[in-house]
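INSTRUCTION: Work out how this chain folds

Fields: amino acid sequence; protein backbone structure tokens

Chain under study, with its fold:
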Amino acid sequence: MKTAFIAFVISLILLSSASFAQEASSKKSYGWAGLQFTSDAAYLGRKDSVAIPYITPQIGFIHSSGWNITGSLSYLPRSGDNRIDVFTLGTGYDFSIGDKFYAGAEYSHNFFSNKSYSVLAGVANSISAYGGYALSFIDLGAGADVNFGSETDFLVNGNITHEFTACNNKLRIAPSFIVNAGQYNTYITYYTQKRYNVNRTSKSNSGQGNGRGNGSGSGSTTTTTTTTTTTTVNIQQVQGFHVLDYELKMPVTYETDRFKFVFTPVYMMPVNPAQVDMGGYTKTETLHPVFTAQIMAVVKFSKAKASNRKGHKV
């Protein structure tokens, strides 16, 4: 993992040296803080059987050259499961060449709770890179990700985007179609270590009554039950790359010099279900379309013009 991180840093330095001259001198460095709500954490159309909503405060700094660093923690507000589910540190570099080409890379390290049942709970480190080219009416983009966990996962994606702007470019709507393909290793880790082998908390209401006399009353009791489930499961080894899901995404962004608001609905259509060995029989997992949404508000600590750099994180 150290070798991968060193290679990532060297590649960022080379990218920075190659593209620094392309950055406009008017770009400003600034810090920012944000708060994000995610309705349900899903990954490539895969999710846990229990909804995982996150409230995520974030803080970061973006240098005028394109270098950035971020930190975030995601709080799980489920009844009986109230906890910080993951803390993430990341650094990356985004750049553009002219008005047509944009690209970037990012490294992140995750500190998941050992109680987390997120599909990504087995991923400690990840490296990603992306690039895109703006045509006259659409943007064509591609990316690659490497997830480091108990096993290494390689993934690629392609996307088509068309952006609409209004209000002097302060309002941007960018519907996109995305195809994700890759290996199953991250999902296999989740299935074998998390889905059937973690504490699950459920809440039930029971008991109620009323009385008559000089007064009346009613009451109920709430019982919280934590069940520890341990089931031996295996996923039949899947070789090579496979299309994992198709996604429709439409981020709506309103940005000023000081503030930024983003609403991002995503509709995921997972494909190619895994074959799951339950210890006595094999079944094909059932996949369903997943809808999730994110709402994010950001404040910038100094004035910074809304970036038209497509890969700019904030």
